[in-house]
Amino acid sequence: MYSLHKRRIISNPLCLVHGKTEETFEHLLHLCHWVDPIWFGSPLGIRIDKRKITTFDRWLISIYNHCSTSEREAVLTLISTICWAIWKERCHFVYQHREVTPPSTIRATRNLALEFRHASASMRNSRVLRLHMQWLPPPIGHHKINSDASWFPPDHTGIGIVIRDSNRVMIVGSSLLKKCGSVTKAEATAILAGSELVVSLQLQNIIFELDSEEVIIEINKNHNNWVWIPREAYRVAHVASSLAFGRVDPVRWASQPPPSLTNVLCNDGLPCPHVEGD
Alpha helix locations (H) across 66-202? Predict the structure, then answer.
């Protein structure tokens, strides 16, 4: 209210709860009589010394400096939720004519803090999950091959193949068009084309990655060097297969991948300074 009064938006700067003191930011959150039990009844158990309150930011800095590094995040979270709960309870009093009730404000503070902690944990878990969905390089001395198929009925099939080493360096990439009568045949053709490329390059210590668990299970009945990875970590082969539809003849690249593939490779940790047109 005090700030609105200074801007001459309202005529009365007094606190709307008890009407005796100007409602400054500090008064609203610290000095008004009804907020004392909220700060003390919160998990922080803070007793507000009104004689020492000058500005809110100085008070907050003093609290921050008295906390250990491990405590600071939790303390700041609780202070933020307490301030929000006080403001919300004040607004209910002003606009809904509902009496301020410190016990309900304390409960709201605890609920808000709990919700925030759960949301923060979910965000951290989400970041970890995204890390698990990123492409990982093979062990030293090995190569990883990713091959994929994009299929459109009745038989239009794009095949994409990318081979990289343990330093994330792309050894070769390829896009080609095929005709396959089904998705299953398209996936099998992509595997065959990738295998033929490995043989032609005479590469050793190969790890094959696919995003089809069903295919991996069948192949690993006789081989054990085929690995399933989620689609999110398999984007480079998927993009390479889509590139085939813009070409008539098969194309192979190494040091100069197409621009649409470069961004995906960079996200996987491969520096790709040179590009050529799609």
Answer: 69-96, 102-132, 183-201
β-strand partners of 207: 144
Q: How is residue 84 written in tokens?
A: 């929000």
Q: What are the residues whose beta carbons fall under 8 Å from the beta carbon of 94, sequence distance 6 or more?
A: 16
Q: Specify burial of residue 236 (Cβ count, 10 A radius: 0-12, 13-18, 19+).
A: buried
Pick from 132, 161, 134, 160: nearest CA to 145: 161
Tokens of 169: 């360096």
170 dihedral zone (left: phi>0; alpha: psi -120 to 50; beta): beta
68-119 pLDDT per residue, tens? 887 888 888 889 889 999 999 988 888 888 888 888 888 888 888 777 777 7
**Are the C-beta atoms of residues 265 and 187 closer than 8 Å to each other?**
no
Tell whether the model's pLDDT for residue 50 goes beyond 80. Answer: yes
Helix (H, G, I), strand (E, B) or coil at 278: coil
Nearest to 159 by CA among 115, 190, 182, 130: 190
Q: Which helix (H) or strand (E) element contains residue 100?
A: none
- For 86-89, which contacts have Cβ atoms below 8 Å and span 24 or more sequence positions? 86/28, 86/29, 86/35, 86/38, 87/28, 87/29
User: pLDDT (tens digit, 9 = 90+) per residue, 15-46?
Assistant: 777 777 888 888 889 888 889 889 888 878 88
**What gap in Å lies between CA 2 and CA 27, rounded to an integer?**
10
Q: From CA 236, how far away is CA 58, in angstroms rounded?
A: 52
C-alpha triplet 156, 157, 158: angle, nearest 5°? 130
pLDDT value at position 278? Answer: 45
CA 177 to CA 130: how far, in whole Å? 32
- The b-or-e profile of 119-133 (16+ CB within 10 A means b, else e) is eeeeeeeeeeeeeee
